[in-house]
């Protein structure tokens, strides 16, 4: 059995500033309420609304956990390019 040695070199990036922001929304509920009888039925809840108090992961509209709601992520990445450095 041969052993391999892998060397990873990192290149110096010409990007000076990178920032990203993401907005997460939880939209329609996808919990199958009829799974125990072999069917498929969703409750029609269109957007997660956090319950107040200690149970913030439960939807106030349908009573389901936040994980049952479809997650939408809007991500924006901004990179600013800098001029090449003559010393490199």
UniProtKB/TrEMBL annotation:
Residues 26-72 form the ZF-HD dimerization-type domain. Pfam families: ZF-HD_dimer. Keywords: DNA-binding, Homeobox, Metal-binding, Zinc, Zinc-finger. It comes from the Eukaryota. GO terms for molecular function: DNA-binding transcription factor activity; transcription cis-regulatory region binding; zinc ion binding. GO terms for cellular component: nucleus. GO terms for biological process: regulation of developmental process. NCBIfam families: ZF_HD_prot_N (TIGR01566). This is ZF-HD homeobox protein Cys/His-rich dimerization domain. It comes from Arabidopsis thaliana x Arabidopsis arenosa. The lineage of its organism: Eukaryota, Viridiplantae, Streptophyta, Embryophyta, Tracheophyta.
């Amino acid at each position: 059995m041969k052993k391999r040695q892998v060397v990873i070199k990192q290149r110096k990036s010409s990007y000076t500033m990178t920032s990203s922001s993401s907005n997460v929304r939880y939209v329609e509920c996808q919990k199958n309420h009829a799974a125990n009888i072999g069917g498929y039925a969703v409750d029609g809840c269109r957007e997660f609304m956090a319950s107040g108090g200690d149970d913030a992961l439960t939807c106030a509209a349908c009573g389901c956990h936040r994980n049952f709601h479809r997650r939408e992520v809007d991500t924006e990445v901004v990179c600013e390019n800098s001029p090449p450095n003559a010393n490199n």
